[in-house]
Each structure stands twice: as C-alpha cells, then as structure tokens.
Amino acid sequence: MKYLIAFLASATVASSAFAANPVVKLPSGVVVETLKAGTGAQPKADDVVRVNYRGTLANGTEFDASAKHGGPASFPLNRVIPCWTQGVQTMKVGGKAKLTCPAATAYGDRAVGPIPPNSELTFEIELLGVGQ
C-alpha cells in the first residue's frame, strides 16, 4: 500500500511539472514566463505594439496598469525600458507573458514615480497587436 501511495505521489508531482508555464531567461537577465502562447505576429524592436499590462514591484505592490489609463496602450517597442523591448519581442499577438525585469533592464538606479531606485519589476503583458 505504501508503494502505491508513493507511486501516486510521484506521478502527481511529475504531471504538475509538465503543466508549468514555459520560462526563458534572456542574456540580460530578463525572465519571460509564457502564460498563454500567442499565434499572431511577433514584434520587432522598431514595431509599435498594443498591449494590456500590469506592473508590480517585487513586494507585489502595483505601480501601473493599462486599465488605470482607460485600456490598452500603444507605443514603439524601442522607446520603453530594455526589459520590455527584449521580452515583448519573444511574444506573439494573442499571447500573455510575465516579465521579471532586473533593475538594470528597468530603471536602474533612478527612482521613477512610485518605483524606488534599483527595483526589480514584474509585468504581466497581453500582446494585442503589432504595427497599430
């Protein structure tokens, strides 16, 4: 009986490991966790992207969200923090991802609004469109 329990426990652990979201660590240290794979176009750094997003500090405090500004945001991908430029290029339209941004790829030693200097940031991003 104890062997059956051990087998079932190990099978449960193994199956949950396969259910995990794909995670990629970029050379800069940016971590991209795919929450939902997209099937549309994949942006390049010089593209304009349209996204829904939510940004939080390492302690979970939300500092910004597209919903606070009335809905999706559009901007040139090469005009934002390096974490976004690098991470969003790994996504496809229709996808959702969580970006973990080391301070060096976010705002570095600068304080920006409610973001303290040298802050690691997390963004949940939904890529809605490219070139809009």
UniProtKB/TrEMBL annotation:
Q: EC class of this enzyme?
A: isomerase
Molecular function as annotated in GO: peptidyl-prolyl cis-trans isomerase activity
The signal peptide here is: 1-19
Q: Does the keyword Signal apply?
A: yes
- Keywords on record: Isomerase, Rotamase, Signal
Q: Where is the PPIase FKBP-type domain?
A: 46-131
Q: Does the keyword Isomerase apply?
A: yes
Q: Which reaction does it catalyse?
A: [protein]-peptidylproline (omega=180) = [protein]-peptidylproline (omega=0)
The record's annotation in Pfam families points to:
FKBP_C (PF00254)
- E.C. no: 5.2.1.8
| PROSITE patterns for this protein | FKBP_PPIASE
Gene3D superfamilies in the record = 3.10.50.40
Q: Which domain of life is it from?
A: Bacteria
Which family does this protein fall into?
Belongs to the FKBP-type PPIase family.
Name the chain's protein. Peptidyl-prolyl cis-trans isomerase
